[in-house]
Amino acid sequence: MISPPFLFGTLNEALKQKLNKLGLMSDLDLVLHLPLRYEDETRLLPIALLAAEQIAQIEGVVTAHEIQTRPRRQLVCQLQDASGTIAIRFFSFYPGQVASWAIGKRLRVLGEVRAGYSGLEIIHPKYRIAEKKLPLPVTLTPIYPIMAGLAQQTLSKLISQALAYTGRNKLLVEILPSAILKTHRLPKLAESITFLHHPPAATPLDALQSRTHPAWRRIKFDELLAQQLSMRQHYHQRRSHHAPALPQHPALQQKLLDLLAFTLTAAQQKVVDEISRDIAQSFPMQRLLQGDVGSGKTVVAGIAALQSIANNYQVAVMAPTEILAEQHLQKFTSWFEPLGIEIAWLSGSLKKQQREAALQKIEAGIAGLVVGTHAIFQSPVQFKRLGLVIIDEQHRFGVNQRLALRLKGSGDTAGVPHQLMMSATPIPRTLSMSYFADLDVSVINQLPPGRSPVATKLIDSRRRDEVLTRIREACRAGRQAYWVCPLIEESEVLQLKTAMETLVILRETFPELQVALIHGRLDSAEKSAIMTAFSQGIIQLLVATTVIEVGVDVPNASLMVIEHAERMGLSQLHQLRGRIGRGADAGVCILLFQRPFSELARKRLQVIFKHTDGFEIARQDLLLRGPGEFLGTRQSGVPLLRFADLDADGELLDIARETAETLLRDYPQIAQAHLDRWLGEKKDYLRV
After folding, report:
1. CA torsion angle for 448, 273, 575, 514 (degrees, to 10)?
2. What kind and span of H or E run contains 669?
3. DSSP letters of 573-617?
4. How confident is the model at residue 21, as a pLDDT?
5. Total-model pTM
6. How many Å apart are CA 533 and CA 514, to the nearest integer?
7. Has residue 3 got a pLDDT over 50?
């Protein structure tokens, strides 16, 4: 009988649905579903040689069998071989198990040996009856990622069958040129996959578990190569699209620079030049501008915006929160109004009449600059000639939102608008190379002169009175302070309640001070009025939720207290801390923590206490959380790596990046075949 060409097509629908939930849609998916770990069932150990904390396989006869009820119900058995006896214990069991462990039964057992009250024991082992002489496997036993309703044994059998099918159908035929494999000492793909599913008994377990074995190295390289190919392919494709060429207007730029109360740093000037060259080209710029908190990204964006407006093209500036968008509006207004440039404001809180007036100015092209929140990319907004899109804190917007804004200009005969994305969350090198390989990246790695260092102090919440004394002293000396309320992820309502309670307490504690509260539920006008009063020094102490995390700039505020700092992420703590130390006085950030807290929270607090460099904090954050959490994958639309580890595999990433360029240049058909194999329909990442 001739077997069908593919295994997946022979499976029943119920099984297919379970496999689909694991992301397995084909034979190739099955064979690339690699083990999480391995068990060594290739040898038997004598009971007398067992040691605590060892995972071992033994075989023996049941010599005792008892269901105990104290201190809790449990099945306790004794298993004996020629060398000794060990206790086997089950806290959860059913009648079939009790029958399997009847006295006189011969069983093969695999589990972790532990030190019990009366000697060594194994709790809830994996076991099977060994009445007939069971042969020992010659390969290690793979343990796969599974889900409820899909047994490990079922999946293991399916993967073994799929391996046979893929071999017959040449699905794993070698694609990469032999010269590349030889140069980088990479084994063949089919051999690597087969090896990882069924490693020989002598294979060192630590090399498999740590994924440092050459077979794992090949898999990780292929995965990284597919990612790099996809990203670089998009990078090159972008240069085939048309965008408005926006040459520099030096005289107008100089007028803006003359209005500024400061001189650009060397790092800012370098980035200004990079962006200026990009938007003068006739293909779309897609540049990520990174800079630590307070490094001066906004003025760089302002100079780029002016270059677009000088060429009679509009600019859209989008920020994730109204407070940040309003801060941008104030800065751009102070810079652009003296130059005669009309600015439009768009946010969800605008009244209908104001909104209609703004929309008319935008559509007619009267407004050269449009500043706002996500309201900018909604369907009623029509630009006359959109030349540049600037997105602040770009990772906070979903892919579809960013795409919608870019498409606002795609109907124009001038083509796709240029795009500048800004982030105050520095992205570690390996992450940038891996997930942003389709972008050009600029970094402002220098703070403006005069920025005072911020001292960070970790203080137990039981020493709250000392903190209150520091606030009183700072405000009496003419300075201002923030009191940031705890982040309560479960409920915005609870967070607001806590903030309001804190406001009452602080007003009672400081009757001589003006204390106010700002939070996300206030309308735009109220937020603006409070921030203006705080900026003017009318309010001395501002109680806030994390709504002030980005964009707030009050130089006289030199003290910040963050309650329940153990609940917050590193990026958020660093962003909040960046709100102070912007004036003549050195900033002090007090992180109030409450015990007990998790080990992860302890590590986060240690990092933020020791480091002020945003790039080092970001690197530590990546180590603690992994790329998916760090990037906010759900929003960013970035596919996670399944096998490669960006921290451990930086060397492989370098090789993959270099190889991707070689394949795209010299072997485009091989590059496409590799993408098809590893990414399938996901190969056309939507990178915006």
Report:
1. 60
2. helix 668-679
3. HHHHHTTSS-SSSPEEEEEEE-SS--HHHHHHHHHHHH---HHHH
4. 87
5. 0.72
6. 10
7. no
Quick check: 618 and 428 in contact, CB under 8 A?
yes
- Tokens, residue 343: 């600015």
Q: How, if at all, do strands 286-291 and 440-444 pair?
A: parallel
658 residue type, one letter: E
Per-residue pLDDT at 548: 65
Q: Would you say 165 and 27 are in contact if contact means Cβ atoms under 8 Å apart?
A: yes
Length of the chain: 688
The predicted-structure confidence for 116-148, as pLDDT tens digits, reads as follows 888 899 999 999 999 888 899 999 999 998 888
346 backbone dihedrals φ, ψ, rounded to 5°: -130, 125
- At 674, list the tokens: 């590799």
Give the strand order in the sheet containing 418-423: 343-346, 369-372, 314-318, 386-392, 418-423, 286-291, 440-444
133: which residues sit within 8 A by CB, 6+ positions away? none
CA nearest neighbour of 565 among 615, 607, 601, 599? 601
**pLDDT for position 685:** 40
User: Hey, what domains does the chain have and what are their CATH numbers?
Assistant: 44-135 (2.40.50.140), 211-450+646-688 (3.40.50.300), 454-611 (3.40.50.300)
**Alpha-carbon torsion (301, 429, 610, 482), positive or negative:** positive
Percent of the chain with pLDDT over 70: 89
Residues 78/64, Cβ–Cβ less than 8 Å = yes
